[in-house]
């Protein structure tokens, strides 16, 4: 098969069929495409209309599937004769090709390709059948684990035998437990396992296999890791090239005719993207899978690139779901741009404003209250569903209670109803409208904020998709703002309340977990039964447009909160239910029960020797051999084994071995930021700078708000003398970690190297602000460098002229000799090129003034300040600074220390130059008196010192000048 033709197939647009008849009459292809989009929109009314416009038997069968799917009858979709016929052909192809030993995804993909090729005239109906069957299995899984209503095992028992094709042993019976265990293994990706307590994971496994064929058109399944190129070189969706996935550089695409038929589907990639997000959220780990992310990006590159009918909200929904995908996979920006695009596509207008109002019952004075004004492009005038109306009109009489007439008779007899009985008597409608005071009479908050402006309190009737977009904007507020009161206020009631009271948050989370079920039990009230009567298609209509948590995710969050609050026993029980064995071991250790933890791990190993359990045993026994076993059992796919193994090697000071283990770990799971960070840190220790740069670059690409990673990256570039790169890295680091004085010092150095003098002076001010934390002396060398660069940009040229103006230039190396701990590759004291600017001089004057007001006893700072005034022509101020420099040097006992004597003699000599330049008798007299005192004390112990003798000669010259 020619490679060029393959590329053409994978880059072709969807085929659009047009009718030869009148333009108002839809062709068969257009009818199916409209039905396909109606399924995405859960618009079963439109599908019923389309059924009246075709007499084609195949189209009618496809429309029947679409109607069942849009009505929420997902099990009936699978039971439909067209799906059953496809499944029989699929099973025959698997047996004929001998594919039972392959991964289920590869097996089904190759078998479906065989089925399509065997019946080329029927490819379009087959494509729709596979698509709708995959969507039905996916929605079944989501219904059972996310939204409800729950279904009894008996109602799904007839679906299990047909799933036998997934098993690699034809002799094994397709029971619920067998398929459950098989699916948990099959759904492992990048070495990470799914939650085991989920309901019917086999439905998600089947959906992934079918939709992988439809949306990705490749025989390469998700067990083969994707390259991390999309991390290092993110590709905009507009430029994302549709190509099949590869293994070891070899593409394995489908037959071109089959691929063309699948690409003609309008929503194949959309449903595939939804299944990928559901797969990611099923994994126990909170770290995103690079393999699933790459596939998701491929699918949504098609979804957001399509054009949709202008009279629908499909474009907005596509952008919204793409933004949520970025949020789920923790991609930089987390979908903010896509949420904005969704808002623009839907026509939603949002404005955050304020209005005066009262929030509490006893509040007298109105204060400013935050208000969100949101308006849909078209107001939502949709009527409530028939089921909702029926439920609202239903009272508890349908469940054995009294009728309204009986209630009236009871009231007339003088037997008043209790508050709870009255709620039941009023039915579900009243139950929905329960007030805050009824729920908590002691609260001080009003039911709603009492605004002075009535318009501020009015609620707009938003479209449902606009409501979902507003929820996504709450995610954006939380993702891109600090955790403070304003952020929480913008999101109203949200998980942000967990910051206010951890105990309250745990109680709320426990209530959510308890209510996250739709099974009617004998202990549930009639109201609960009515509440759970919402049909599946209404519950799932927008479930992919919001981040709605499944039960196992809620339980994990609850267990994490128990653990953070020190409720270890409750956390342990929940983690055991979730089979999160890492956390179970941690809880046993916190409860000081390591023996029980080890016994549990060995018991689980006897049942299922998984890589995770081997790692847990290694954690408990400190035996690295168990990590090696885990790595081998996983066939080099379980990155956690290598990460922990690497940490153990680091603790044993085997740095080179630790680096090798972390390199293996990031190769398998390249989206785990901590592993990259650890690899970068270890590489810095061994001075393996290229590896360190690569590691920290991956960290900041995955987590752009990691200030420490940015700082380390900047330090490496600085060590490599790549000053521009270092400057940019430190700029990003300081956005996150502004209180680290080490970063500010490095930033000053980089700013001077790249001649960003304004940034350098700003950083010096920040270091002065942080003096209480670091207690380090003022960097007088950096101040001297700033003075040389800004005030004396032509200092080298002046020196070349013979050095006639000695007072205007200073040999900085002589004045400030390098300390013993300075590196050889330290900063030179003079910038090779710099621009003198009046604004810079003003800023530098403020910096020097502030510095000397804070640090008054540092003679070197006063010398730099004097040198600055010399360059600016401020002779009097320069003389004053030199006098303060000499006074700072005259500390107690200075005349007993040779170094102090030499420094003071040099400073006094510079001071004499300033006095002599003044030339007045008063100046000469003051200078003579000062020098006489310095020389007199210096000669007591250091009369033969060259600096003392030199100062004595200056004194004689001064006396001669004064005498004349």
Automatic annotation (TrEMBL):
Keyword Repeat: yes
SMART domains referenced in this protein's UniProt entry, alphabetically: TPR
Native source organism of the sequence: Aphanomyces astaci (Crayfish plague agent)
TPR repeats: 639-672, 673-706, 707-740
Pfam families in the cross-refs: TPR_16 (PF13432), TPR_8 (PF13181)
Keywords, sorted A to Z: Repeat, TPR repeat
Record's keyword annotation contains Metal-binding: no
Highest taxon of the lineage: Eukaryota
UniProt protein name: Uncharacterized protein
Gene3D superfamilies attached to this UniProt entry: Tetratricopeptide repeat domain
InterPro entries: TPR-like_helical_dom_sf, TPR_rpt, TTC27/Emw1
